[in-house]
Amino acid sequence: MRVIDGDTVAVLSADRKMTRCRLYGIDAPEKGQAYGEVSKKSLSDLAYRKVLDVRLTGTDRYGRAICRLLLDGVDINREQVARGMAWVYRRYSQDRAYFDAEAGARSQRLGLWAGTNPVPPWDFRRQ
């Protein structure tokens, strides 16, 4: 597996095919954005060199695979949000646990919530 950024990985399947997966329900800071590299490192710490359960949930409008990553039953996508390393991607997520994780990270001022007025990636991309 290769970590691309805080919400994208490339995974090697059992048949040795590399697939790029966008993590379901979250949007992490972009490269060049505050916390972009920190978010990538967090995902790497959680998932790199681990045997993961990769669950395909669909494809996005660009044809990319959308996946949930699980490690021993722990939802890595949600964990990124709980650590303050990503926002819930409200446009695409309906998972209450993700919203609760974001509220917890925000109230504890974890990760990107430690700063004042963090800019969501969807706004950063428009700049």
Automatic annotation (TrEMBL):
Signal peptide region: none
Domain TNase-like: 1-115
One Pfam family in the UniProt entry: SNase
Gene3D superfamilies for this protein: 2.40.50.90
Domain of life of the native organism: Bacteria
Record GO terms (molecular function): endonuclease activity; hydrolase activity; nucleic acid binding
The entry's keywords: Endonuclease, Hydrolase, Nuclease, Plasmid
Name listed for the protein in its UniProt record: TNase-like domain-containing protein
